[in-house]
Amino acid sequence: MRMSFYQFLMTQRNPNSADEVQQFANNAFLDTAFPKHSENFDEISHYLEENADYLPSMTIFDEAWQRYIDAMN
Fold it and tell me: Domain named YozE SAM-like: which ranges (predicted)?
């Protein structure tokens, strides 16, 4: 079964890690407006660009998205 990007991202959470993707996951967990059911790159990317002041660089999202794609294949 395919999971949403958010569901995948939650598997990356680690509050004690310096890994940027894991920190992104920790912060996304606290973001109540995150598009939790989306599997769409453009939708999530647009949301993050407009709303996620906790994400210092979109390259972190790109890395997380690649991990998501790899995990789904």
Answer: 4-69
Sign of CA pseudo-dihedral 23, 26, 29, 33? negative
Q: Which amino acid is at 39?
A: E
Specify the pTM. Answer: 0.92
Compute the chain's Rg from CA coordinates. Answer: 11
Exposure pattern of 29-43 as b/e (b: 16+ CB <10 Å)?
eebeebbeeebeeee
Alpha carbons 3 and 16: distance in angstroms, whole number: 25
CATH class of 3-70: mainly alpha
